[in-house]
Amino acid sequence: MKSVLCSLLCLLSFCHALAGEAAKEVVTVGAEDDWAPYSSVVDRQAKGFAVDVVREAYALVGITVKFDVLPYSRCMAATKAGTLVACFDAVPNAMIAKDYLWPDLPLFTTHMNVYALADSKDSGMVARKLEGRTVGVERGYEYGDEFDLNTKIIRKIVDKNDQGFKMLLARRIEFMAAEERIANALFIRFPTEFGGKFKLVGTVATPGLFIAFSKTAPDSVRLLKKFNEGYAILRNSPRYRAIEAKWF
Predict the structure, then answer these.
(1) What are the residue boundaries of the Solute-binding protein family 3/N-terminal domain, all occurrences included (predicted)?
(2) Residue 113 to residue 201: CA distance in whole angstroms
(3) With contact defined as beta carbons under 8 Å apart, do 56 and 227 qualify?
(4) Mean pLDDT of the chain
(5) Burial class of 224 by CB neighbour count within 10 A (0 to 12, 13 to 18, 19+)
(6) By Cβ atoms counted within 10 A, which residue in 22, 31, 165, 187 is the most buried?
(7) CA–CA separation, 213 vs 52, rounded Å?
(8) Rounded to an integer, what distance in angstroms lies between the CA atom of residue 210 and that of residue 216?
């Protein structure tokens, strides 16, 4: 009898554990595939600073995140359409702010820089000074309102930042606009091709970058609220600085 009771108790305990696992909420979030060290695809998995931040913020409120890794423009389009609940990393500028829901705080802040060839005499290049000049930009990305809304800048759209820097090396464009850490990571990754070949000649914006939430996806408002809750805890903890130290 005693052994039967023990077996029943073990079975109940096991079922309870399974029920607990089943009760855990899982959400799929879009992550861009080519923005290391913030978010990129490595061995078919999302990796990067922003990936860790989003994952851990949700974990603090009991939600497990799965990542759908895809090009940024597709990620944002799917979020706008409601087939994804959210996508990162986005700048809520005047062109896209109205199309998404935004958290209270950015995932991080950064510098959107302008690069030229190392022998360039240009400096202090802000959006106004780039009017009439050819500037490489990555497809679908935001670089701050002053740059994004200035129609006098001649933009050459590329699918990846390294393509833009190759165009700059070939003198097919005069400048390349790129996020600071992204550019530095490329210069380190391709030292023979890019090392010492470029110089920083200006900064067009110092924006905060966010995870953008869909206005139409089911439950997106609640999931935004849960993200705000978890991220507020993470942001004010030593763990956030540990994630920064890991990636930067």
Answers:
(1) 27-248
(2) 8
(3) no
(4) 92
(5) buried
(6) 31
(7) 18
(8) 18
Between CA 120 and CA 197 the distance in angstroms is 10
Q: What is the largest CA-CA distance in the chain?
A: 90
What does the pLDDT read at residue 24?
82
pLDDT, one tens digit per residue, over 109-128 is 999 999 999 999 999 999 99
In this structure, which amino acid lies at residue 188?
I
CATH, domain range 25-108+208-247: 3.40.190.10
Decide if 141 contacts 72 (C-beta within 8 A): yes
Tokens describing residue 113: 């820089």
CATH no. of 111-205: 3.40.190.10
This prediction's pTM: 0.84
The answer to whether 79 and 215 have CB atoms below 8 angstroms apart is no
d(C-alpha 108, C-alpha 19), whole Å = 37
HSE-up of residue 88 (Cα within 13 Å, Cβ side): 29
CA distance 137 to 169: 15
Type of residue found at 128: R
Identify whether the C-beta of residue 208 lies closer than 8 Å to the C-beta of residue 91: yes
Q: How far apart are CA 231 and CA 131, in angstroms?
A: 39
Model confidence pLDDT, tens digit, residues 22-46? 448 999 999 999 999 999 999 999 9
Which residues on adjacent β-strands are paired with residue 149? none
> Do the beta carbons of residue 84 and residue 29 sit within 8 Å?
yes
Domain boundaries, the chain: 25-108+208-247, 111-205
Q: Report the pLDDT value the prediction gives residue 174, as an integer from 0 to 100.
A: 99
